[in-house]
Design a protein that fits this description.
The complex is a heterodimer of chains A (207) and B (74).
Chain A: H1 17-24, H2 31-49, H3 53-70, H4 80-94, H5 126-129, H6 132-135, H7 138-149, H8 153-164, H9 169-176, H10 180-204
Helix pairs in contact in A: 2-3, 2-4, 3-4, 4-9, 7-10, 8-10, 9-10
Chain B: H1 5-9, H2 15-27, H3 29-46, H4 55-66
Helix pairs in contact in B: 2-3
The chains are: A mainly alpha (207), B mainly alpha (74).
Chain lengths: 207, 74
């Protein structure tokens, strides 16, 4: 988790800069302020990565313990938030428990090709056209969270970082130590997978 | 073209490829629908609300943080 050693790098002074400097200069009681700042983001990230709450809680604890352990090595080469997610993603990848909700398989692009759909559509479905705020509700959020959990982990990490946490392609690539093109490939397949699940959800429930 | 739809949605594609996708999608309902539903999927993901942290867990986390041996680091 140590940042790259580049003595000439320019420090990124984000909103956490001063707090981290204070912690690293000995004010360790301020670490809790840093935890409070990211607790909710990390809690939700962990819930989307782990199937059950107990695993998610373990993941958050391990992440913050690792952050505390390695904070002195943080060299401000990225925003702290990006480094925090790198630690969290790494903690998550290490927790590779077998789960029926997380089969470790490849998603093939061919299975999502529009021509392969059983019926060629004669119209654009309503759920793609109606105002988004009319569509979003608790049930849909719950469904999409469940379907995200059913994605294989390598795709799940990418779509959660890109589309839910809002990191750019370059940032996601850096957090996961992947190439940007690899991030794009995984993201596209993950989105197509979720699109299929949403299509089924709306069609089956005749929404 | 199909494999570039996400890059198109994200504005990461050059003008030539964008124009090609738009031209095709405007003449092919299957692809137009695929693009519309994919865009909507992304929008739904971007608008999922976060859950609040349960107070009990927040307290537990605070306790764990307070009990980290201060010699560990920083």
């Amino acid at each position: 988790m140590t940042a790259e050693k580049n003595p000439n790098h320019k420090k990124i002074k984000d909103k956490d800069f001063e707090l981290i400097q204070a912690i690293n200069s000995g004010q360790t009681d301020k670490f809790h302020d840093l935890v409070k700042r990211y607790e909710q983001k990390l809690y939700n990230f962990s819930l989307r990565m782990c199937r059950d709450h107990s695993d998610a809680e373990d993941m958050i604890q391990e992440t913050f313990l690792n952050v505390f352990r390695y904070l002195k090595d943080f060299r401000y080469e990225t925003k702290f938030k990006n480094w925090l997610y790198k630690v969290a993603a790494s903690t998550c990848i290490k927790k590779r428990r077998k789960s029926k909700f997380a089969p470790d398989k490849e998603l093939s692009l061919d299975e999502f090709l529009p021509g392969n759909e059983t019926e060629v559509p004669d119209h654009v479905p309503e759920w793609a056209l109606m105002p988004l705020d009319k569509l979003l509700n608790h049930e849909l959020s719950s469904t999409i969270n469940q379907e995200i959990l059913s994605l294989p982990k390598k795709y799940r990490l990418v779509i959660v970082l890109r589309d839910i946490e809002g990191f750019s392609t370059a940032e996601t690539a850096q957090i996961l130590s992947l190439s940007p093109s690899n991030v794009k490939v995984r993201l596209h397949r993950a989105r197509l997978y979720l699109r299929d699940k949403l299509k089924g959800y709306f069609e089956n429930d005749l929404r | 073209m199909f494999q570039q739809l996400s890059e198109y949605i994200d504005g990461e594609l050059d003008h030539v490829n964008c124009a090609e996708i738009e031209k095709h999608a405007n003449n092919c309902l299957a692809c137009f629908t695929c693009l519309a539903t994919l865009k909507r999927t992304v929008a739904i993901c971007k608008n999922i609300k976060d859950q609040p942290v349960p107070q009990e867990f927040s307290r537990k986390l605070k306790e764990i943080i307070q009990n980290i041996p201060k010699t560990t680091s920083p």
